[in-house]
Amino acid sequence: MAYALNSLKAHLIIQLNRIQEELLECLSNSTISAEKNLAETLKSHPQTSWVELLEHNVSPDHTTLVKELTKVEAALCQFDIGQYGYCADCEEPISLDELKKDPTKQRCGLCER
Ligand SMILES: [Zn+2]
Asked: Where in the chain are the dksA C4-type zinc fingers (predicted)?
């Protein structure tokens, strides 16, 4: 189990880096100068404060990426506090198969219905 969780964490970190790179690229190439500036701001901030910086500052074009980033960050945060893999509603463990399908899953199959 521990090994499986570690590989999920590694997967989440890869995903996090990919989303961040994609966001930086989108923002740097944006025609909106505020977004270009935001890209510069992000580069000088630790990755953990990105979600906060992004939330109110990007155009709707990027909300999908920001949402993804938020989910991945939340999952990684749960790793840090030892809550990863537990349902946010009933607090039962989420099955490993489900986590493998979506490592950012927050709810078990029953609560999701
Ligand atoms: Zn549940």
From this structure: 87-111
| C-alpha of residue 31 to centroid of ligand 1, in Å | 43
Domains identified in the chain, total number: 1
Q: What is the pLDDT along the chain (113 residues), one digit of tens a residue?
A: 677 889 999 999 999 999 999 999 999 999 999 999 999 999 999 887 888 888 878 888 888 999 999 999 999 999 999 999 999 999 999 999 999 999 999 999 999 98
Residue 105 within any structural domain of the chain:
no
Structural domain that includes position 76: 2-83
The model carries a pTM of 0.86
- What end-to-end distance do the CA atoms of the chain give, in Å? 26
Using an 8 Å Cβ cutoff, are 83 and 111 in contact? no
Q: Helix, strand or coil for residue 93?
A: strand
107 falls within a domain: no
In a domain, 88, yes or no: no
